[in-house]
Amino acid sequence: MILVTLLAILMGGGILAWVAGTYNKTASRWISLVALLIDLGITAGIWMNGVTGTTAAEGADWITSVKYDWIPNFGMTFHLAMDGISLVMTSLTFFLGAIAVLVSWKSIEKNVGFFHFNILWLLAGITGVFLAMDMMLFYFFWEIMLIPMYFVMVIWGHKISRYAGWKFFLFTQISGLMMLISIIGLFIYHGVQTGSYTFNYFDLLASVPGGPVAFWLMAGFLLAFFVKLPALPFHSWLPDAYTESPSAGSIIIAALMSKTAAYGLIRFVLPLFPEPAHDFAVPALMLGVVSILYGAKLAYAQRNLKRLIAFSSFSHMGFILIGVFSFNMLALQGVMMQMVAHGLSIAALFIISEFIYERIGTLDLLEMGGFWRSMSNMGGFTLVFVMASLGLPGLANFVAEFMILAGAWQFDVLMAVLATLGLIVSVTYSLRILQKVFHQNASVKAGELNDLNIREWVVMGCLTIAIIWLGLFPQEVVKVAQPAFDRMGNNMHQNKSGEIGMNDTNLELMQRRNIENIENGGTAW
Amino acid sequence: MVTLNELKFLLPEVTLALGAVIVMLAIAAKRNHLLSNILTLAVFGVSFFFLATLPAEDLLVGKLFVIDPTSRFMTGLMLCSAFIITLYSFPYFKIQNETKEEYYILLILATLGSVCMTMSDHFVSFVISLEVLSVSLFGLIGYLKKSTISIEAAIKYLIMAAVATAFILFGFALIYSVTGKMDLMGLSESFSNGQIDNMAVTGLALVIVGFGFKMALTPFHLWTPDIYSAAPSPVAAFVATISKGAAFIFLMRLFYSTGGLEHFGVWITFVLVATASMFIGNWLGLRQQNLKRLLAYSSISHLGYLMVGFLAVSHAGIKASVFYLVIYFTSILAAFGMITYLTGKKGEPTMVEDYRGLFWTKPWLAAFFTLVMLSLAGIPLTAGFMGKFYLLTAGMAYGSLFLLIVLVVSTTIGLYYYLRVVAVMLSRSEAQIGEHIGSNSFVLKAVFAVLFVLILWMGVYPNTFFSLLGM
User: What three-state secondary structure class fits B64?
Assistant: First the structure.
C-alpha cells in the first residue's frame, strides 16, 4: 500500500500543482517540493525501520509489495514491489527530484503550474519503473516518462529544443516498441511453454527462455536500455536532449532517466536471460569500453559547457555497462554505487552550469574564465564535483568505479585495463571545466557576478554532503541492496551453469575486504 | 422464409429504414433543422435500444443476414458513431448557407447501408448494402453544393466507388461461376472441398482490389486525402470510420469463411498491401500541412495496422481487429470533432498552422486534442496503445514477426507528424483562433468530455470493453 501512496502523492501533487499554478506560482512550487519531501521522508522511514505491518509475498528479501488485478484477460497485474535496489533508486529519485524543483525555483517563470505537473508525473513514471513487477506495468511507466519529458524539453527548453525533443522522443519510442515486442514475445513464449499466460515478473522468472529465441527476446530489451542509457551506437540523441532541456529536465534525464536503463539491465536482462546475456558479455564490454573512451574524447572537444557535461555522462555510463556484464557480485555492487554516485555528481554539474547560465546568459566556455574571484563559493563546490567526476578517492564515484573495475578484472582483464584508461582521460575533461570556467584570464563577464545565494547553497550543500558521505560509507548503500543481489546470484546459480560464479565465496570475501579497506580510508589494496 | 420471430432480430435495421422515411415526412410537414436533427438522434437512439434488447443468440436470418456477436457489436459501435456525427452535424450545418434537412436522411441511409454490410452473409445482401452506403455518401460528400471542391470530391468518390463495385461484382461472379454459391456458409463448404482453383483465386483477387478502394489501402488509397479535405468534417468522419469499418468486417467474414488466406498468393498480397499501407500512410503524412489530409494519411496507416489483426487468422485476430476498430473510431471521431468545433463562418481550420498556440489560449481543448493525437500515435495510457498492444499480441501468437516489426517501425515514423501537431499547439503565438461554432455549443463540449474519458479509460483499464466484446 505504501508503494501506491508514493505514486499517488506524486501524481496527486502534480495535478494540485497545476491547478494551484493558475492562481499562484509560488504555491505550485511549494506543493511540488512538499510532495517530493514527503515521499523522501517515507523512503527514509523505510530505510531506517523497514515497513511495519506489511509482509512481502515475494520473499524475505522484498521489503514490501502490493498486487491487484489489472487486465486479467491478458494476465496483467498491477504489481508493485520494493527490494533494496528499488529502495535506493526511489530515494535517489525523490532526493534529486526535490533538488530539481529547487533549482528551477527562479528560472522557470512561464506556466509554472504545468511545469511542475510535468516534473512530478515524470518522476512518478521513473518511480513506477523502479517498482513495477509486471512487465506491462513496467512498460507503461517506461513510456509515461516520455510525454512529460518531451513537454518539459519543448516548452521550457533552449533554442533548438523542438528538434532535440523530437529526436529524443523518436529514439526512445522506437526502442521502447522493440522492447514491447520482446515483452509480448516473452509472454507468448512463456504461455506456450507453461500454459499460463502472464506478464508477471515472478512467474516469468520461473521458466526463463533458452536458445536463439532467448537471444532475440533479449535483443529487444537491450535495444531499449542501450538507447536510454545511452550506449555507443545509440547516443546521438543525448547531447541535444541534455543540452536543450531546462536545467530541471537535464538533471532528471541525466541523473534519473538513464538510471532506469541501468536498473532495467540488472532487474530484467540478467535474471530473465542469464544464458544469452552471458554470451553477449564480450560485445557488451567492448561497447562499454568504447563508450567510456569515445565519450571522454567527445567531452574534451566541446565548447558548450552543458554538452561537455552531457558527453561526460555518456562516458560514465560505459562503466555501468561494464559492471553489469562482468557477472560478479563486486561489479554489480559497483553498478549500484555508480547509479547513485553518478546521479548525484552529474546533477550537481548540470546545476552549476545552470547557475552560470542564469548569471551570464551563455554556456560557451570561451566566454567564461576567471570566475573564481567573484564566485569562490561556487568554484569550491565545482571543485568537489569535478573531482568526483574524475574519480578522486574519498568521493562516491571513486568507490563505484573502483568496484566495477575490480569486478571486471576477474571477468576479462583486457577490458578492465582498457576501461581503467577511462579514469585517466576523465581527468582531462573534468579539469578542463574547472580551468576554463574559474581560472584562466578573466573574461569580460567575470566582473559583476553574484556568488551563491541561500537557496543555491542549500542545493549544493545537500549534494556535497551526500557525495562525501557515500564516498566514506559506501556500505550503507551496498548493504541495503545486498539481499536483492544475493537472490539474483542464487537464481542465476540455479538457472544456469556455475561458470557465472556469482556465489563464489572467495569473491564475496574479497569484496568485503575491499569495502572495509575503503571504509578505513585506504584507497586500494 | 423469414419468420416474424427472425424479423425481430432485424428491428434495429428496420428502425433505421423507417426512420429515414419519418425524417423525410417531417421535412414535408415542416422544414426545421433542429427538428430533423432531433428526429435523427431519436432514430439512432431507438435503433440502439432495440439492439440492446435483442436476445443474445446467434441466428441466420433468411440466407442473407447473420446475427452474431461481431455483427451485434459493430452495429452498436456504428450507431453510437452515427449518433455522435449527428451531434457534430447540427452546429456545423447551422452556419452553412444551404438547405440542411435532407442531409439527415442521407446520414441515416448511409448508416443503414453500413450496418447491413457488417451483418451480410451473402453476396447479394452485401452488394445492396454497399450501394445504399455508396449512393448516400455521394450525396453527403457533395452536400455543400455551393463549394465546387466539394462537388469535385463527390464526383471523384462516385467514380472510385463505381469502379470498386465493378471489381467486387466481377470477382463475385467468378467465384459464383466456380462454386455456384453466393452465401458465405455455402462458399466455405465448397472451398473446404478443395474447389479453390485459379478462377476462384482470380475472383478473390478482384474482390481484394474492390475492398482496397473501399478501405483505402495502398495502392488504392489515392482518393482519400482529396475526399477528406473537401468533404464537410462530419461527413469526412463518417467516411473515415463507419464506411471503412463496415467494409473491413465483410472482408473478414469473406476471407475467414472461404479460407482464402490459406492460399499463398492471396496471403502474400495482403501482407504486401498491409505493409505498403503502414509505410505509405505514415510516410506521406510527414510533410503534410493540411490537418484533414494528415488525418487521411493517418487513417490509411491505421487500416494497415488493422490488417495485422486480420492476417493473424484466429479468433484473437478478430477480437483484436474489432477492438482496434473501436479505438480507431473513437480517436478519429474525436479528431474530426475538433475540426468541427473550431469551424467558423470563414470555413474549417484545415491547416496545422491554424492551431498554433492553442495550448495557451484554450488549454482544455488543446489537452483533449493532444490526447487524441497521442492516441492515434499509440502512446501508452491512451486507447491507441491498448489497440496496438492487442494487435501485436494477436500477431505474435500467429507468428507474423515481419508484420509486427513493420507496424512498430512505421508507427514511429508516423509519430513525427502527430507530435508536430502537438508541438505547433505548444508553441507560442499571438494569433487567436477566430469566431467558432464550438464556443457556444454545450453539446460538442459534452461529446468531447465523453470521448476524453473513453480514450483514457480504454487506455488504462480496458476490461469493460473486453467484456463487451465477449471475451
Answer: coil
Q: Looking at the complex, report in whole angstroms how far the Cα of residue B414 sits from the nearest Cα belonging to chain A.
A: 10
C-alpha to C-alpha distance for A171 and A163, rounded to whole angstroms: 12
Of B381, B412, B423, the CB nearest to A162: B423
Counted domains in chain B: 1
* Helix extents (H) in A199-302: 201-206, 211-228, 238-244, 247-251, 258-264, 270-272, 274-279, 281-300
Work out the burial of residue B347: count CB atoms within 10 Å of its CB; fewer than 13 is exposed, 13-18 middle, 19 or more buried.
exposed
Decide if A174 and B408 are in contact by the 8 Å CB cutoff. yes
Domain ranges for chain A, please list them.
Answer: 288-525
Q: From CA A331, how far away is CA A283, in angstroms rounded?
A: 17
Report if residue B435 sits inside a domain: yes
The answer to whether A258 and A228 are in contact (CB under 8 A) is: yes
Residue A132: phi and psi, rounded to 5, are -70, 135
- CB atoms near residue A458 (< 10 Å): 13
In degrees, rounded to 5, the angle at the alpha carbon of residue B311 between the alpha carbons of residues B309 and B316 is: 45
Residue A126 in grid coordinates:
521513473
pLDDT tens digits along B426-444: 887 776 777 888 888 899 9
Size of interface A-B (CB pairs under 8 A): 67
For chain B, the distance separating the N- and C-terminal CA atoms, rounded to the nearest angstrom, is 33
Q: Domain for residue B132, yes or no? A: no
Residue located via cell numbers 546475456 = A277
The ipTM assigned to this model is: 0.87
Contact between chains at B427 and A162 (C-beta distance less than 8 A)? yes
Q: What is the pLDDT of residues A36-45, one digit of tens each?
A: 999 999 999 9
CB contact under 8 A, B389 and A174: no
Instruction: Assess whether pLDDT exceeds 80 at residue A510.
Output: no
Does residue B380 lie within any of the structural domains? yes
Pick B419's closest partner by Cβ from A166, A174, A178. Answer: A166
Of A136, A140, A154, which is closest to B426 when you measure between CB atoms? A154
Global pTM reads: 0.89
Helix (H, G, I), strand (E, B) or coil at A71: strand
Of the candidate ranges A42-56, B82-96, B145-159, B375-389, the one whose mean pLDDT is the lowest: A42-56
Question: pLDDT tens-digit profile of A254-313?
Answer: 999 999 999 999 999 988 998 899 889 999 999 999 999 999 999 999 989 999 999 999
Provide the pLDDT for residue B373. Answer: 94
> Would you say residue A517 has pLDDT above 60?
no
Within-domain flag for B304? yes
User: Coil, helix or strand for B400?
Assistant: coil
Instruction: Output the nine-digit C-alpha cell for B21.
Output: 422515411
Does B392 sit within 8 Å of A180, measured CB to CB?
A: yes
DSSP result, A151-181: HHHHHH--TTHHHHHHHHHHHHHHHHHHHHH
Q: How confident is the model at residue A521 (pLDDT cuts 50, 70, 90)?
A: very low
Is the Cβ–Cβ distance between B174 and B206 less than 8 Å? yes
Count of Cβ atoms closer than 10 Å to residue B194 Cβ: 7
- Show the domain range for B290: 281-471
Taking the CA of residue A116 and the nearest CA in chain B, the distance in Å comes to 16
Residue B418: which of B392, B382, B460 has the closest Cα?
B382
The residue with greater pLDDT, A60 or B71, is B71
Q: Between chains, do A143 and B379 touch, taking CB under 8 Å as contact?
A: yes
Chain A interface residues facing chain B, Cβ-Cβ under 8 Å? Answer: 70-74, 111, 136, 139-140, 143-144, 146-147, 150-151, 154-155, 162, 165-166, 169-170, 173-174, 177-178, 180-181, 184-185, 187-188
The alpha-carbon gap from A13 to the nearest alpha carbon of chain B, in Å, equals 19
Q: In chain B, which residue's Cα lies nearest the Cα of A179?
A: B408
Residue A469 Cα to chain centre, angstroms:
19
* Closest-CA distance of chain B to residue A451, Å: 34
8 A C-beta contact, residue A447 and residue A374: yes
